[in-house]
Amino acid sequence: QKEVEQNSGPLSVPEGAIASLNCTYSDRVSQSFFWYRQYSGKSPELIMSIYSNGDKEDGRFTAQLNKASQYVSLLIRDSQPSDSATYLCAAVRYQGGKLIFGQGTELSVKP
Amino acid sequence: DAGVIQSPRHEVTEMGQEVTLRCKPISGHDYLFWYRQTMMRGLELLIYFNNNVPIDDSGMPEDRFSAKMPNASFSTLKIQPSEPRDSAVYFCASSQIVTDTQYFGPGTRLTVL
């Protein structure tokens, strides 16, 4: 079992719709979680970090964390073609503090 | 701040040659990370440093890979000898604390022929 798992996609949504990206992790004591966006040929850039159970909103983005279910998600409201990218979920491994990335989910927003 | 700086941006070399990748972290960041990204394996942590000291090199694939951080503003990742399977994008990232946001450099795309 991979430490951080994501559906590779591609996930295709129409412009203006809500895109829902999901991630599960195996380290029960992980405390820090991140969503990075990576455009093709570019480096990952941080979108959201989340540390507590519940929702965290930032503009059109909402991160959700459920530690009991070991589940992290990212919702993108009013999706735009410019949101088309690969979204990487990452969790900090409790032992050693390493950031472990999932394989990424490719999102395509169709005009 | 200029962000994390990496050089070269692209490197094409022949099998058996030595390759050196360079990184300048964001000033004030105590942690520096080297990652490798391929389609097959995704983004993998190779090694990370805290205050110039290597903390975890368990991700370094084999002895052909080595990394150094002689001072707070410079790190190198060396591959000697290089092999075609080393072809990947290598990212350097830095952060203030290990559990905090990591800021990535633009990456070095390495092609080993």
Quick tags:
heterodimer; A: 111 residues; mainly beta; five-stranded antiparallel sheet; globular; B: 113 residues; seven-stranded mixed sheet; 11 strands
Average pLDDT, all residues of chain A: 93
Q: How many extended strands of chain B?
A: 11
Radius of gyration of chain A: 13 Å
Structural class of chain B: mainly beta
Oligomer: heterodimer
Approximate strand percentage of chain B: over 45%
Gross morphology of chain A is globular
Evaluate the radius of gyration of chain B.
Answer: 13 Å
Q: Tell me the fraction of residues in β-strands of chain A, as a range.
A: over 45%
The biggest chain-chain interface is: A-B, 20 and 18 residues
Q: Which stretches of chain B are low in confidence, meaning pLDDT under 50 for 5 or more residues running?
A: none
Q: Count of helical segments of chain A?
A: 0
Can you write the helix and strand succession of chain A as a string? EEEEEEEEEEE
Instruction: Indicate the mean pLDDT of chain B.
Output: 94
How many helices of chain B in DSSP terms? 0
The largest pleated sheet of chain B is described as: 7 strands, mixed
Descriptive report:
The complex is a heterodimer of chains A (111) and B (113). By secondary structure, chain A is mainly β. Chain A has strands spanning 4-6, 11-14, 19-25, 33-38, 45-50, 54-58, 61-66, 71-76, 85-92, 99-101, 105-110. In chain A, the strands form two sheets. In chain A, strands 2, 4, 5, 9, 10 and 11 form a six-stranded mixed β-sheet that branches. The radius of gyration of chain A is 13 Å and the shape is globular. Chain A starts with a strand and ends with a strand. The mean pLDDT of chain A is 93. By secondary structure, chain B is mainly β. Chain B is built from no helices and eleven strands. In chain B, the strands form two sheets. In chain B, strands 2, 4, 5, 6, 9, 10 and 11 form a seven-stranded mixed β-sheet that branches. In chain B, strand 9 and strand 10 (103-104) form a beta hairpin. Chain B is globular. The mean pLDDT of chain B is 94.
